[in-house]
Amino acid sequence: MPNPQSDEAAEPVATGTPVAAMVWNVGSVAERLGISPSTLRTWERRYGVGPTHRTAGGHRRYTEDDIARVTLVQALINRGAPPMEAARVAQELPATGLAAALSDASDDDHGADLDHAQIVDGIIAAAEAYEPTGIASLVSGALRRDGVIGAWAGVIAPALIRIGQLWSEGRLGIETEHLTSEVVVSELRAHTRAIGRLDTSGPTIIVASAESDLHSMPLIALEAGLAEAGLACHVLGAQFPAKALASMTANLQPTIVFVWASLPRTEDDEMWQVVTGMAPPTTVILGGPGWPDNPHARGHATVSVNLESTVARIASLVG
Ligand code: B12
Fold first, then answer.
1. From atom 71 of ligand 1, which residue's Cα is the shortest distance away?
2. Which of these CATH numbers, 3.40.50.720, 3.40.50.280, 2.130.10.10, 3.40.630.30, describes 198-318?
3. The pLDDT value given to residue 75
4. Which residue of 24, 38, 149, 183 shows the fewest CB atoms closer than 10 Å?
């Protein structure tokens, strides 16, 4: 349990707070609720949900009622409410109604009663409001409820595709795309870690993004999907150099090489030459919309259709 007034502890509360009312500083509230102090300050500045007291020195002090309101905002966002609406509900409730509203809204299984479209809307709203905790709860709730393949197809990919569209129409900034993808990556990785240590002594599976392509999230989704199927892989990440892929494949003789390309590539591209030049015992799978659409030039490489079929195909190839 954090200490209510660990910093500026000696400073008295300036307003007429009863002595018995425990008051908390912003750092302690942040620690208690698992929200960053900057998010708490943002909610106060933008939506007016925050501490009702200040010390004589101007430091914020939250009472238990203030904390209940902030907790309610967090719980409502986690359930898909737009932050402004969540704040309005929390502000309008009388203190006597807070406990009941909190018990209705605080459910560990975030988004459990929402359908996929509502969760996607919640993720977009949280992303537009720069609320990483809101995105994280919805994504982790979907991963817990639907597994990687269900959450990716029903929630994560549709949200990302919509964010990409909104960005290309100039309706949201690139920072929203970065913020969302960072949160999605960490939730997918947390899900993979929670599955536990996997046996790495089996056939080698390499997953990488094509040289100069920054899009790596599908690799992290594939890593998580394979982990659910009990398979470990080597994730080489974004912008993997073609020459390094060629030499690693020659040395390791992996069973599977999966290469992702979101951005368009051409047939004179070195990465295309490397992947289409690979032969058994290595199976090459190309993922993403970026690869040239020429089946005759692909050699032994095949093109993937979606996450589910890619996991199934790899699982059957490695036995
Ligand atoms: C997140 C994101 C980023 C992040 C990437 C972070 C990361 N760690 O990956 C950041 C911010 C870095 C980024 C950068 C850029 N991005 Co970007 N980005 C995206 C976004 C929103 C999602 C990318 C993604 O993960 N896609 C995967 C899934 C969600 O979508 P999909 O490719 O359509 O996938 C389907 C199929 O391929 C299929 N599938 C088939 N086989 C397989 C196999 C597996 C394993 C999986 C999982 C799926 C699958 O299933 C998918 C649906 O589930 C897309 C939007 C989009 N539609 O993709 C734009 C998008 C790819 N980006 C785009 C652009 C232009 C850029 C930038 C050039 C400019 C920018 N926005 O800053 C730079 C690129 C710089 C570079 N050198 O690479 C464009 C590309 C347009 C084009 N064709 O050229 C897009 C399409 C946005 C848009 N609508 O215009 N981006």
1. 174
2. 3.40.50.280
3. 84
4. 38
